[in-house]
C-alpha cells in the first residue's frame, strides 16, 4: 500500500501515566479514541513512537503517539512519516490549544507554533508547517498561573464531566478531514 493512500494522525502529549490526564495530553486522548473506533491497539514502532494501524472512514490510517516528551515530538513524527512515505499534506496533528476556550475545536492547515513547543518541533522535523492541525481548546490558566504549569495539570473535575464528549467530537473532526476535507470539517465544527 503506498504512502499516497495513507493518512497519519498524530496525537501530541507526554508519555507515561504521570501525564495521562494532563491538558497537554488532549492529543493522545483523541488518537486513543480513534484507535478504539478502528479496533486497533498501539504498539512500539522503531521511530520512537506508539503506532496503531487500521482504517477510518474506509481510508488507511496510522495513528501516532510520540514516545518522546512534547518538546521533542518532531523526530518521531518525521520518522513515521518517512517510514510510510506520507506527505505532510496528509498528516493531521491533534494538540491542546491555550488560545481557545475549553471545549472549542478549530481545524486549520499550516501556521505558526503559537508558543506550542510540540508544534514547533513537528514543523522543524517535517521541514514544513503545512500539515493539518486539530486544535483542542483547553483555555487559559486561571489567575496568574504560568501557562507551562497549567498545561501539565489534569483537567478540572468540572471539565472532566464534559471531556469525553469533546474528545469524541475532535475524533469526529479528524474523520471528517480524512473523508471530506479540511473545509468540510471547518464548516461543521467551527460553527458549534
TrEMBL record:
It is an enzyme of class 3 (hydrolase). GO terms for cellular component: cytoplasm. The record marks 96 as: Stabilizes the basic form of H active site to accept a proton. The active site is at 24 (proton acceptor). Its EC number is 3.1.1.29. TRNA binds at residues 19, 69, 71, 117. It is found in: Cytoplasm. Keywords: Cytoplasm, Hydrolase, RNA-binding, tRNA-binding. GO terms for biological process: protein quality control for misfolded or incompletely synthesized proteins; rescue of stalled ribosome. It catalyses: an N-acyl-L-alpha-aminoacyl-tRNA + H2O = an N-acyl-L-amino acid + a tRNA + H(+). It holds the Pfam family Pept_tRNA_hydro. It comes from the Bacteria. GO terms for molecular function: peptidyl-tRNA hydrolase activity; tRNA binding. The record marks 14 as: Discriminates between blocked and unblocked aminoacyl-tRNA. SUPFAM superfamilies: Peptidyl-tRNA hydrolase-like. Hydrolyzes ribosome-free peptidyl-tRNAs (with 1 or more amino acids incorporated), which drop off the ribosome during protein synthesis, or as a result of ribosome stalling. Catalyzes the release of premature peptidyl moieties from peptidyl-tRNA molecules trapped in stalled 50S ribosomal subunits, and thus maintains levels of free tRNAs and 50S ribosomes. Belongs to the PTH family. Monomer. This is Peptidyl-tRNA hydrolase.
Amino acid at each position: 500500500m503506498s504512502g499516497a493512500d495513507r493518512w497519519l494522525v498524530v496525537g501530541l502529549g507526554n508519555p507515561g501515566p504521570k501525564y495521562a490526564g494532563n491538558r497537554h495530553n488532549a492529543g493522545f486522548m483523541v488518537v486513543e479514541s480513534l484507535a478504539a473506533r478502528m479496533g486497533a491497539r498501539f504498539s512500539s514502532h522503531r521511530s520512537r513512537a506508539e503506532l496503531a494501524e487500521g482504517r477510518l472512514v474506509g481510508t488507511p490510517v496510522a495513528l501516532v503517539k510520540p514516545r518522546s516528551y512534547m518538546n521533542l515530538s518532531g523526530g518521531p513524527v518525521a520518522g513515521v512519516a518517512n517510514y510510510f512515505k506520507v506527505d505532510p499534506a496528509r498528516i493531521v496533528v491533534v494538540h491542546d490549544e491555550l488560545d481557545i476556550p475549553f471545549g472549542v475545536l478549530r481545524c486549520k492547515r499550516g501556521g505558526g507554533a503559537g508558543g506550542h513547543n510540540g508544534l514547533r518541533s513537528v514543523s522543524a522535523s517535517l521541514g514544513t508547517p503545512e500539515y493539518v492541525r486539530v486544535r483542542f481548546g483547553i483555555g487559559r490558566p486561571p489567575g496568574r498561573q504560568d501557562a507551562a504549569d497549567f498545561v501539565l495539570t489534569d483537567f478540572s473535575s468540572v471539565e472532566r464531566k464534559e471531556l469525553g464528549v469533546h474528545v469524541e467530537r475532535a475524533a469526529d473532526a479528524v474523520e471528517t478531514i480524512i473523508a471530506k476535507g479540511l473545509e468540510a470539517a471547518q464548516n461543521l465544527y467551527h460553527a458549534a
